[in-house]
Amino acid sequence: MNARMQTPDRREATPPWHALPAARALELADATLAGLSGEEATQRLAAHGPNVLPRQGGDGPLLLLWRQINSPLVWVLLGSAGLAIGLGKVTDGAVVLAVVVLNTLIGFVQEFRAGRAIEALSSMVPEQAMVLRDGRQQTVPVAELVPGDLVMLASGDRVPADGRLVAVKNLQVEEAALTGESVPVQKTLAPVAGDAALGDRTSLVFGGTLVTYGTGTAVVVATGQRSELGRISTLLKEAASLATPLTRALATIASYITIGILVLTAVIFAVGAVRLIGQGIPLFDALREMAIFAIALAVGAIPEGLPAIVTIALAIGVQRMAGRRAIIRKLPAAETLGSTSVICSDKTGTLTRNEMTAVAVWTPSGAVEIGGVGYAPQGAFRRGTETLAAPPAAVAELLRAAALCSDASLHQADGAWHIAGDPTEAALVVAAEKAGLGVEALRREWPRRDAIPFESENQFMATLHDRPGGGAQLLAKGAPEVLARRAVGIDEALLLAEVERLATAGMRVLAVASRDWSAPHGEVQLADVTALRLLGLVGMIDPPRPEAIEAVQRCHAAGITVKMITGDHAATARAIGQQLGLVTDQKALSGRDLEGLDDDGMRAAAASTNVFARVAPEHKLRLVKALQADGHIVAMTGDGVNDAPALKQSNIGIAMGITGSAVSKEAADIVLADDNFASIAAAVEEGRRVYDNLIKSLAFVLPTNLGLAGILMCAVFFFPFDAVTGQLLLPMAPTQLLWINLVGAVTLALPLAFEAREPDTMRRPPRDPQAPVLSRFVIVRTIVAAALMTAGAIGVFLWEHAREIAAGGAPQLALREAQTMAVCTVIAFQIFYLLNCRSLRDSLLNIGLFSNPAVFVGIGSLLLLQALFVYAPFMQAVFGTAPLGVRDLLVAVAAGAVILPVIAIEKRLGAPH
Ligand code: ATP
Question: Which residue, of 584, 683, 852, 892, is most buried by count of CB atoms within 10 Å of its CB?
């Protein structure tokens, strides 16, 4: 190991990398322009540790717990418990405390787990860096970078570690993560002053910053915590925010309900107290009785469990989406997905496989069809490299130029051929190999002196090479119409007709051109790429992904429009669009067509066209805006560095996990782990499910709370006084009401969040994002169910009480039995109603009675608890219950079951939206 490398704890020994010439920096880092050997890199990794920054999680558990406790509701409840105990009602106070503790714990556990789950997702998108090791370019995980590594940077990359630049080409880096300055910095090779501020150290690149333009090579000088970013530890604190529009809407609803219930409680308190005093009960006793009562009512009827239910439903959704390869970066996307009405997708790699295979070559002297060899971006050849019969000289020249003007490389490992780099370029390199050109040897014979890397906005790439016999040659490859404009001596009409012919067959077509280079300097600028001699065209196929074709169909069934937005030629785009089932007619608009349109024209174009070709990032932005102006919820994919604005503007920005630039990932709400369109459709499906399940939970929780309030309200307002005790006849004692609240929320409401998706999830139109959460459906359902629950509980109570008294039973026992039956009726009602709520639209039998085991675990636990409540002597003492006979239980169950036919009829009458 090299003793000259700086050690972590002797920072004063760190050389001033920015002030040193590049050559000296290389020397000090014990590196060469050929890169490290794999062996050396392994040794350095052991010595320096992995290139990772310790991730500070979101808030710690204690803070989270405190946040749960520190809510107005909890303080009210705690105050109530204190008041109850102060008034001598220790049992009531203890039960209120139990409710508070349980609810807080559930909330805490859920939020904690949800936060952890969401944080864990970020590690599902592995970061890779391009390095030069063992003399060749390779991608390695960012964590394995070591000081001395030579990293290659290109626009869109995140700089993986701190490095001293040793080569640059128009390199611009946005260093906001470090300096807060969002204007990109132009990087150069020249050393800067030793005391230059971080933002002025233009000869260095810093880990965590983003390359916005150009290319560069840097020798790594500091990794992990020793990098500049690592020193400012606060930066990576990624608190997973759990707030979404829906949780906020529900929080508002919950607070209105709380206020409503508090008002109701005050009214009940006043009415009850007046009635008690009217009965001759002493003032203090009357107030005390009613105070306990009011507390129980407030605690029992306020839906404290709702926030936890929402959080867990979203967290489950996020996890399921991750399982289906869509990584949610921003939680609100999990629910917005459900209302997506348009998906704008890139073509290459998302709708197609990104396995480019050159199948046709055309030169001005004739066309050649070549056999296809397919390969995946990082995959292996599907067939061996077959050598073409000796190609005509013109074809050989064309393929040589195409291969030299490419960065992709081939290598053999594990008995198969692998490619590294851009699949479009790899197709060219493979074609050259198949023509027997020996690309590695070619690259040695024609050393590259300079290059203008491919940028989507230029649509071509150019390289400058020394010619074996002396002199130099400029080579270019790119979109045919772009190179045609920079070429001389061509019949443009003939050329473009040929392009059209190949593109109509669904091929991506690249033109290749060259020019003898006589300028003395060895640097090419954009302006130098003129007066080209056209060598010919290469046509390559990239078939649609079969699963994308199927996903497009599912989206269509779900009322979602799919639009393809591609940088490719219009004819290619149209052909692929047809194969994917996106278009039936011949319509495709190009970026040029869009340019002339005003905002209205753009809206019309966006609405009527599904295939857009030769689109530049700024067109994407305008398209999103036009679609949004028409009221659409737009999901938009993007991979390039310039796609960030469109991704941010769209309702759901989707980046590509494998091929996407770091810049696009940063701007996105979702990252696709497999770059596959099918994963977008899957995420939409999960989004719809999440929303359904939330509505189910709401439709379950609200009637229960309202019903409990209804039962007590009826009793206080209208019930007679007990002839013997002179007390109000209450269908439920305060502790019993709290019991229902305590056990019901946990065992019954949460399992709904695990409900499978409804059979028609992807057969109905997208949800209107403007529709209120408390829809007419939820409100009607709440009132119907609450009324039934109130009527059932009160009816059973009065019936049982009258029956017992008539049979000559002791009034106290009669009351206990009648109350126990009322509670059992409510519990039975809740169980039946829960089964009903498992589907908003379908009957229980259709969705499969046992399709959600969580529900039955919940019901089983509740029945067990309820048996204790009724039969365990200890519980009888605490809650004032009495054991019931089989007949009584059956009556309670029957009363609760009334909800089943009622909701079945309601579902038949009208499906909610
Ligand atoms: P999509 O938008 O469907 O994903 P894309 O992003 O691959 O397509 P671009 O990469 O912008 O589209 O490519 C646009 C055009 O630029 C291509 O049709 C091709 O003509 C040309 N092109 C693509 N890759 C290269 C390359 N490596 N070198 C030169 N030209 C290229």
Answer: 683
- Band (pLDDT 50/70/90 cuts) for residue 122 is low
**Contact 568 CB / ligand 1 (< 6 Å):** yes
DSSP letter for 544, please. B
Instruction: Judge whether residue 235 has pLDDT over 60.
Output: no
pLDDT band at 752 (very low <50, low <70, confident <90, very high): confident
Q: Which residues contact 218 (CB under 8 A, 6 or more apart)?
A: 150, 151, 153, 159, 163, 164, 165, 166, 204, 205
Residue in the block written with tokens 């639009």: 563
For ligand 1, atom 2, the nearest C-alpha belongs to 566
- Which of 181, 166, 158 lies closest to 221, judged by CA? 166
Instruction: Please give the structure tokens belonging to residue 378.
Output: 């990082």
Can you read off the two tokens belonging to residue 440? 């590695």
Instruction: Give the model's pLDDT for residue 197.
Output: 87
Pocket mutation for ligand 1, best pick of 345, 346, 566, 637 (most atoms within 8 Å of C-beta):
566
Two tokens, residue 565: 């937005």
Orientation of helix 245-278 relative to helix 306-323, angle to 10°: 160
Q: Determine if ligand 1 sits within 6 Å of the CB of residue 346.
A: yes
Query: What is the rounded CA–CA span in Å between residue 58 and residue 813?
Result: 54
Active site residue 842: no
Contact 821, 888 (CB under 8 A): yes
What are the tokens at 532? 């080209």
pLDDT in tens, 407-437: 998 887 777 778 888 899 999 999 898 888 8
Residue given tokens 């808030």 in the structure block:
59
Find the mean pLDDT for residues 677-683: 95
pTM of the model as a whole: 0.81
What's the 336 CA to ligand 1 centre distance in angstroms?
31
Please pick, among 346, 407, 422, 643, the residue that the annotation labels catalytic: 346
- Cα(160) to ligand 1 centroid in Å equals 25
Q: Please give the share of the chain, as a percent, with pLDDT higher than 90.
A: 41
